[in-house]
Design goal:
Blueprint (H helix, E strand, L loop, with lengths): L4 E8 L2 E9 L4 E3 L2 E2 L6 H13 L5 E8 L3 H20 L2 H10 L31
Parallel strand pairs: 3-5
Antiparallel strand pairs: 1-2, 2-5, 3-4
Length: about 130
Amino acid sequence: MSQKIITTSGKRKRAIARATLRAGTGIVRFNNRLLSTVEPEMLRLKLAEPLILAEGVKVDVSVKAMGGGVMSQIEAARLAIARALLEFTKDEKLKNIFLNYDRHLLVADVRRKEMCKPNDSKARAKRQKSYR
């Protein structure tokens, strides 16, 4: 009997996270660290949101995130976890729960940092001109 293994990815700004999900006992790892050791607590709770919403699903999750900042990595990881859970359960009810709670659990946030304009050091603010 082969074990069902699901691999998904999530992106947020410059961060990319890959999640591997398989049936198990509920062990969650983020960058090779147990979920209970992720600090600060706010990040731990944000990472656990998809697992809390999908109550009763016993899976082992391993997430590796790279690039970007700490918050972007966490948001990319929760996107990858939510997509993996949805693919694992194939439950339309769970999809509606995720979408009603937070749309960014299933849909990537495509906003990126705005590039600097030519001949200027900033993306938006322009040098003031005085004509008098």
